[in-house]
Each structure stands twice: as C-alpha cells, then as structure tokens.
Amino acid sequence: MSSSSSLQQERQDDELSFVSKSILFFIEDILENRLGANEWNLWLVAIGSALLFAFIRLVCGKYMGIDWYALCHALVSAGGSCACSFLNAYATTSTPPEPLRSVLCYGPLTTLHTLVPAISLGYSLFDIADGLSLGFEFVAHGVALAIIMSIMIATDMPHLVTPMLMMEVSTIPLTTLKADFYGPNEAMMAQMMFAFLFFVFRCLLVPKIWFDLVFHLFHQAYYFPTTGEATTTTTTTISNPYKKQNHNIPSFFIIIIIIII
What whole-number distance in Å separates Cα of residue 190 and Cα of residue 187? Predict the structure, then answer.
C-alpha cells in the first residue's frame, strides 16, 4: 500500500473513531450517566413516548402541512437506528460483530439499542388510530409494528430489530410532502427524495441486514469465542460490553417469521 493510501486510511479511521466517540459520549454521558436511561423500564418508555407524541400532535397538529408527530418519530427512530448501526459496524467490543452477536444471544451493545424500538412501540398506537380513518392497510401496519416491538421487548431482544428501523429514513421526506411552503419544484424534489430513500433503505439496505441475520442464524458453526480481546476490524472500543443472555435459538425463528409478515 502506498504512503498516500496509508495516510488516507488513517484519516478515515480517525474520522470513524470521532463519530463513534461522539455517539458513545451522547449515550454514556447524557443518556446513562445524567438521565439514567440504562435503568428505564422499556414499557414505560413506550408509554412515555406515546404521551409525548400525543402532546406534539395536539400542540402542533398539521402546522404548515406537516405531520409533526410523525416527523419527530421518523427523526428519532431513523437517527437512533443509524447511530446504533454505525456502532455495530465500527465500535470495538470483546464480543462477535453484528449480526452474529445478536444470533448468539448477547445483550444490546448500548442503551440506545433498546430505547429506539420502545419509542417505535409508543408511536405504533398512532398508526393504528390514524388507520381507522385512512384504511385497513394502515391499521395492519400499526398492529404489526406494535406486535413486533412488543415481542422484542418482552423477550429482551429489542436490539435485534433496531438496525431495521433505518427504513424510517424514507419517512422523513414523506411527512413533509404536503407542506404548504413547497412550490411545485420543491414538492417534486421531496417526492423524488422519498422515492430514492425508499429504494435505498427499504428495498436494499434493510433487506440486506435481514438477510445477514438469517444467514448467521442458519450457520451457527461460525461461533466466535469471547476471549476478552477486541476485534481488529473496528476503531473505537466500548469498555463495558453486555454479557451473553440465555435465550433459546427457536425464539429467533419466531421473530424472523414475524418480521417476514
């Protein structure tokens, strides 16, 4: 490798390390140390999220033609999922990398990995409520979201579905399509952005994440023994990885069937 390529790789590693450390600072210093989020009951988080979204909906309504409560959920769930997925890929632990880590029933990498699905569970109630006037497919979407998130939380595996919530990235421009400050050109750009993000995240990226999970699930032979040493393919170390949890592998098959539905 040339010296310029080496310097470029080092610069890229430094940038990745900075992003990882910034995300971990938010999780560990703010969420856990200051707010005690690592001790929160996830069912109460779901209830609190539902109440917060209800407050936003009541206060903001459709101001400027935007569904503000839906936009807030999309920003939180998409942003949280992307942050968690980034840590899954670039943060070092003494446990196997994802998705093998989840297949082997280790706990969540960080507290944020568990909070994002709980927040989506709270939001699912609005999908159901709105579906009563919009149509059966919207009710079905809300019910499916509620069931999946509830099972994840009840089985202590909400982190399994967290990366898949990146699909909410495409919802961000969707919630603004009817904004009254859009002209014809801006409205067209918003529609194109929604279509592009829908294709990238919902048709390409999330299915790949799901496929990787299924692949590792059916190939249990690829077990990485935990030696306490950090993996060599990542850049930032998480000092306190969670311990392995005692779940039965058949529960993963049930979850995968639910995700398919």
Answer: 5
